[in-house]
C-alpha cells in the first residue's frame, strides 16, 4: 500500500536551536505510529508541524502527494489532518453533542460516517452526549477531544499524550477505540505518549526521537530491544 502521509526532512529551529532536526517517515492508511522519546526531544514540535500549526524551517509534509505543511492549521485540517492536544480544549458551556455538531461542519466530504451515538459508544462516552463538557470527568474530556477530532472526518489523526491521567482500564478502552478508528476508517494515526503499557501494544511501528533527530524506527518488539533506545529512554520507562 502506498504512503498516505510523507514526512521529508522536517526541521524546526527556535532561535538557533533545532527542536526537530531532519525527521523523515511515511505512514500508510490504517497504520498506527507511536512517537516516543525523552522530554524535550521534539515530539510535540513535530506533531505541530504535521498539524500545520507550526511552519517548518525546512522539509515538507505531504498528504497523498499534496503539500500540507506550512499552510496553516485550517488548511491542514481541510486536507484531512486532525489533532488533539496535551491539554483539553473544549467549549465549557456546550454539551458534547453540540460540540460534535460544530465539528461535523468541518468535515471535508459526504462519505458515510459514524453517528454521534456510534462515536460516543466507540469512545466509551455513551450517556455523556447531552452533558456539558465541563461536567465530564477529565478522562472523558480527553476522549471527547478525540471524538471531536474524529467528527471532522480526518484521514490522519494526531494524538498528543491521549492516555495521560487514565487508569489501566481507561487506557485499554482508549487503545481499543484507536485500533477501530485505524482499522475501520482507514485513518493513519500518530500517537505521542510516555505510557509504554498503552503505546507499545497499540502501535504497529514506533519512531524514537532524541534531541530532535530519529534515534530509531521499527516494530514495538524491535524498539524494546534496541540498545540505544534502552540507554536513552526505555531504561527509565
Ligand atoms: N515555542 C518554542 N520556543 C522555543 N523553544 C521551544 C518552543 N517549543 C519547543 N521548544 C523547545 O524545543 C525542544 C523540543 O520541545 P517539544 O515540546 O517538542 O519536546 P517533547 O518531546 O514534546 O517534550 P515533552 O515530552 O516534554 O512533551 C525543547 O527544548 C523545547 O524547549
TrEMBL record:
Q: Which Gene3D superfamilies match?
A: P-loop containing nucleotide triphosphate hydrolases
Task: Spell out the InterPro entries in the cross-references.
Answer: AAA+_ATPase, ABC_AA/LPS_Transport, ABC_transporter-like_ATP-bd, BCA_ABC_TP_C, P-loop_NTPase
- Please indicate if the UniProt record lists Translocase as a keyword: no
Keywords noted in UniProt: ATP-binding, Nucleotide-binding, Transport
Q: Which superkingdom heads the taxonomic lineage of this protein's source? A: Bacteria
Q: Which GO terms describe its molecular function?
A: ATP binding
All copies of domain ABC transporter, residue ranges: 5-236
PANTHER family per record? CONSERVED COMPONENT OF ABC TRANSPORTER FOR NATURAL AMINO ACIDS-RELATED
What protein is this chain from?
ATP-binding cassette domain-containing protein
Amino acid at each position: 500500500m502506498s504512503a498516505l502521509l510523507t514526512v521529508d526532512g522536517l526541521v524546526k529551529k527556535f532561535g538557533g536551536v533545532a527542536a526537530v532536526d531532519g525527521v523523515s517517515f511515511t505512514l500508510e492508511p490504517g497504520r498506527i505510529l507511536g512517537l516516543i522519546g525523552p522530554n524535550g526531544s521534539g515530539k510535540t514540535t513535530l506533531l505541530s508541524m504535521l498539524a500545520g500549526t507550526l511552519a517548518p524551517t525546512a522539509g515538507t509534509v505531504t498528504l497523498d502527494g499534496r503539500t500540507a505543511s506550512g499552510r496553516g492549521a485550517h488548511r491542514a485540517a481541510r486536507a484531512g489532518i486532525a489533532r488533539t492536544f496535551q491539554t483539553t480544549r473544549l467549549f465549557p458551556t456546550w454539551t458534547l453533542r453540540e460540540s460534535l455538531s460544530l465539528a461535523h461542519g468541518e468535515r471535508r466530504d459526504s462519505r458515510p460516517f459514524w453517528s454521534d451515538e456510534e462515536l460516543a459508544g466507540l469512545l466509551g462516552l455513551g450517556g455523556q452526549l447531552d452533558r456539558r463538557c465541563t461536567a465530564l470527568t477529565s478522562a472523558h474530556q480527553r476522549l471527547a477531544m478525540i471524538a471531536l477530532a474524529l467528527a471532522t472526518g480526518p484521514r490522519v489523526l494526531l494524538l498528543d499524550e491521549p492516555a495521560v491521567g487514565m487508569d489501566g482500564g481507561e487506557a485499554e478502552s482508549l487503545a481499543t477505540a484507536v485500533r477501530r478508528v485505524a482499522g475501520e476508517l482507514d485513518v493513519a494515526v500518530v500517537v505521542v505518549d510516555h505510557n509504554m503499557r498503552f503505546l507499545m501494544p497499540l502501535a504497529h511501528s514506533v519512531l524514537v526521537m532524541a534531541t530532535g533527530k530519529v534515534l530509531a524506527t521499527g516494530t514495538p518488539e524491535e524498539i524494546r530491544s534496541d540498545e540505544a533506545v534502552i540507554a536513552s529512554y526505555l531504561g527509565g520507562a
